[in-house]
Amino acid sequence: MRASASKRSEHVALFRRGGKDSAPDDAVETEVDEPAVVDEPGDDLPSAPVERTGGPWDASQVDDDVPRVDLGAILVPGVQGMELRMEIDKATDVVSAASILIDGSSLQVQAFAAPRTEGIWDEIRAEIAESVTQQGGSADDLPGPFGRELLARLPVRTPEGRTGHRPARFVGADGPRWFVRGVITGRAAVDPAAATALEQLFAGIVVVRGTDARPPRDLLTLRLPGPGTPNLQAAAPPDAAPAVPDFDPLRRGPEITEIR
């Protein structure tokens, strides 16, 4: 496994409540007019039951011996040959997302706080689809292995200055007081056979929500792998990426790489 930390100079919020929040570049900017409701851990109202036959899982639901990389709010299964990139907001040094690359395809993962009594993926999916369409792309709401998902065509600017489109799958899962979102890009976005490894990895993610009070849609805290992670080494900064819209999930910066 290879892990890296990537610093970014620009970001667009996937979820907004008034002002702009930090989030990775693949995020689609949306407006949310309803007031934020703080989810107090001491509320008498019980969490709505989350019925699922597969992952991602809540930390309380997992008791197995699958090796996972501890990234704070999420635990990511370790897969031979995968590359892990941690995305960091350059202005705040906050880790905003984790991206896993396998065989040329990528899965970007973020976890968010959610209300106790209801899931938010349905409304988030609609907001993403609307924003992608407004920015010149398209999005189809389709059934997938994790329920409803979006198959989007994101507008991009080619090195020649032309406008093209890049396919991306937006998948999501509602859990007890959390929501986890994944963005699949590369060949896995359109090739079911290539998507299998990333889908299995997404299904094996464990979310560690914690008990602290957080408003719905608040980004759960991620962190870099610990200093004891084997084979940690510096990587040269990659070549500059071509100009693309702010929600492009493939923009990269300086990295720290771990190879397993």
UniProtKB/TrEMBL annotation:
Q: Where is the composition biased (Low complexity)?
A: 225-247
Q: Which residues form the signal peptide?
A: none
Superkingdom field: Bacteria
State where composition is biased (Acidic residues): 24-43
Annotated Basic and acidic residues bias: 7-23, 248-260
Annotated spans, Disordered: 1-64, 225-260
Q: One Pfam match, by short name?
A: DUF3710
Protein name per its UniProtKB record: DUF3710 domain-containing protein
| UniProt source species | Cellulomonas humilata
